[in-house]
Design the sequence.
């Protein structure tokens, strides 16, 4: 409940719609499935631009490669797992374009759950 | 506990950690005393080792590059200020990242206190909130410079906070990331970003 409340209150006004509200609720459910428990002490969220954002930015390709290199070379082993929630069936296509800039170890940490079947997949299965 | 999250393994890793530290001492004058603790700490060295097969020979050149990069980054006033603000903090507040006010509606990362399994920090990003039109809106030098600083500061903030948490909890704290693709049309993502996607892929 805590996450759902925070999630709902911190999303900016432009995002508020019935769809967003429902989505926030679903995200709360997903997040709770990762929860060990409702934490006694609050541990922070860490804000992270990642590969899913970068290819769509207005940055030059050279800059993006440099930034991805920065992430993977200069800050290793910061990420434990990436979960792509509500991935549409066509997500594999998108990921195939992003994955070449990720190293093997990063790829092994990425998994997603398809929205249609609910079946989990790992990025490494799609290579 | 996942072995990837364990503190430095004295038996298996100590020798390699010491080898990396010795190489860094030889490479950088004043190492480690003249550098920030989150850069020089053995737990940071252990991250490089675990990311490179546990071999000092592979980790050393990468970490030398990282130390050079981050040392240069620390000269940036905005980075210095952000690091001072965080200090020993264990919360990565995006409000401390330069240009967050301007970019928060374009990049959909949101701050939600809480923890994932294993009490690890959690990052949640509803992708549908990305401003696709803005993101796909070609090159813009001023905005790119802001993105660049924003991105680099975010990584730096994250590294510092994870280090603080690691020392406090005596384990290698990492984070979970959830990317929510609910109500996201991949075709739309690809249409807006196709040109840049094609250019970001290796030749």
Sequence:
């Amino acid at each position: 409940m805590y996450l759902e409340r925070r999630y709902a209150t911190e999303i900016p006004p432009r995002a508020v719609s019935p769809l967003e509200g429902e989505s926030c609720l679903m995200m709360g459910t997903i997040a709770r499935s990762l929860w060990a428990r409702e934490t006694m002490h609050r541990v922070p969220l860490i804000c992270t631009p990642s590969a899913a954002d970068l290819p769509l930015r207005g940055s030059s390709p050279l800059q993006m490669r440099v930034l991805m290199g920065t992430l993977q070379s200069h800050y290793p082993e910061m990420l434990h797992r990436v979960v792509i929630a509500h991935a549409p069936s066509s997500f594999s296509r998108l990921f195939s374009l992003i994955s070449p800039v990720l190293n093997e170890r990063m790829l092994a940490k990425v998994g997603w759950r398809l929205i249609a079947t609910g079946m989990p997949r790992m990025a490494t299965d799609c290579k | 506990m996942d072995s990837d999250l364990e503190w430095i393994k004295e038996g298996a890793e100590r020798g390699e950690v010491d080898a990396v530290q010795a190489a860094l001492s030889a490479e950088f004058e004043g190492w480690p005393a003249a550098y920030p603790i989150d850069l020089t700490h053995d737990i940071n060295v252990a991250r490089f080792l675990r990311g490179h097969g546990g071999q000092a020979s592979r980790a050393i050149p990468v970490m030398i590059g990282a130390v050079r990069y981050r040392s240069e980054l620390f000269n940036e006033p905005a980075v210095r200020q952000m690091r001072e603000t965080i200090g020993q903090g264990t919360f990565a507040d995006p409000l401390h990242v330069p240009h967050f006010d301007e970019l928060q509606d374009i990049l959909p990362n949101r701050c939600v206190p809480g923890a994932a399994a294993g009490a690890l920090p959690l990052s949640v990003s509803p992708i549908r909130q990305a401003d696709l039109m803005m993101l796909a809106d070609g090159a813009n030098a001023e905005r790119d410079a802001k993105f660049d600083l924003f991105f680099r500061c975010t990584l730096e903030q994250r590294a510092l906070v994870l280090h603080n948490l690691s020392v406090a909890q005596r384990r290698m704290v990492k984070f979970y990331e959830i990317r929510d693709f609910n109500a996201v049309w991949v075709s739309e993502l690809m249409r807006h970003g196709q040109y840049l996607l094609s250019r970001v892929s290796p030749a």
Notes: The helical segments of chain A are 2-10, 18-34, 61-74, 91-98, 104-107. Chain A touches chain B through 73 residues (CB under 8 Å). Strands of chain A lie at 79-87, 110-114, 120-122.
